[in-house]
Amino acid sequence: MSHTPVSTPTESPTGAAKCPVDHHGFEPFDLQDPFPAYKELRAEEPVMFDERIGYWVVTRYDDVKAVFAGWETFSSENAQAPIRPTGPPAKAVLDEGGFTAYSGLSARVPPEHTRIRKVATKAFTPRRYRVLEPMIRDNVNLAIDAMTTKMDAGTPADLVADLAWDLPTITILTLLGVPTEKIAQVKEWAMSRAAMTWGDLTDEQQVPHAHNLVKYWAFCQSLVTAAHESAGDDLVGDLVRLQAEGAEISDHEIASFCYSLLFAGHETTTTLISNTLRLLLEHPQQWAKLAGSPDAIPAAIDEVLRFSPSIVAWRRKALSDTVVGGVAIPAGSQLLLVMGSANRDADVFTDPELFDISRPDARNHLSFGFGIHYCIGNLLAKLQTRVALEEITRRLPGLRLVPGQDIEFGHNLSFRTPAAVLVDLEN
């Protein structure tokens, strides 16, 4: 794929002539089953301008990967920008509340991104994961105990509410040194952040979420203040200590990193755990294979990430006139990179619509991004999902999906999260 600037780009997408009439079944905020539309887009219009959201929708693997890699041309500065502009009422709430939170890493650009990621990497280490693993396993088993009690009494368990909802939140709170009593509050704030950034809200609907973001940001700032007074053995303490030793990172940047982790550190893992169990239970033979071969679990997780990622789309902004997939993209254009489509590109993956945990190249998925912004927390997400699978397949090999349920997915641009996944035990 070429990123060579073009001297005469095609007509601006603001022109009526460029706006396509046929969106090929693609509905930006409907994630119930977007994959047929993705397939049609790859075949018919792999780089399509969607005037409804003002984005070029990019769906082929090579194009998505190249845009991620081409950070000098395709900036991440819009990755955390609201899809729908913040209305005056919500903006007033944010301004009056002193809301100045910014991305931890995903929306920052070099050299700022390079500087902060270098410091964060020193704190976000495999040692911290190893320390957390016994706690994660204990929490998984406590959840399994409660689920078993419920199912033995004849009531289905919900893999989202009874396992995946709290587990990664406890993990990220522990990592940051936050009391686990804050779970419900942090989840509420995270839902507001998702709604404000990736949702399709009216001005009035934004207001309560804006109030939550003000509280969320104040809490993140308080974590940094507390760490300066008494730095604990946690990630915030590590960042404050590194700062004191001369690392180039400000209190505002540390608070912004916490702001990102308190969202991305658990929301996407909740979805990954839920989708992993859901997909495996939808394929009983593959579930049985894992129950007898735990060594196959890491590869299975990569196949879930390929087949049904937590985040199906991410964003970039073109800084200059360029070309994507043979289509001229004018400077200033916004791009929606659909990893959920790229991961099913038949030019890269054999039988891409087939869910197969023995697929040898599943780890080539783009669900954690690619290049300088590759997800810094990917190992922690995989660790928690692996532990959950190890314990559930060991203790509940007879788990099954409740027949006939209609699993609903949230309505937003990027996060494909099941609302509930009901399970019971085979008789």
From TrEMBL:
Entry GO MF terms: heme binding; iron ion binding; monooxygenase activity; oxidoreductase activity, acting on paired donors, with incorporation or reduction of molecular oxygen
PROSITE patterns, sorted: CYTOCHROME_P450
SUPFAM superfamilies given in the database record: Cytochrome P450 (SSF48264)
Pfam families tied to this protein: p450
Compositional bias (Polar residues): 1-13
Keywords of this entry: Heme, Iron, Metal-binding, Monooxygenase, Oxidoreductase
Annotated CDD domains: CYP130-like
Family stated for the protein in its record: Belongs to the cytochrome P450 family.
Record protein name field: Cytochrome
Classification lineage: Bacteria, Bacillati, Actinomycetota, Actinomycetes, Micrococcales
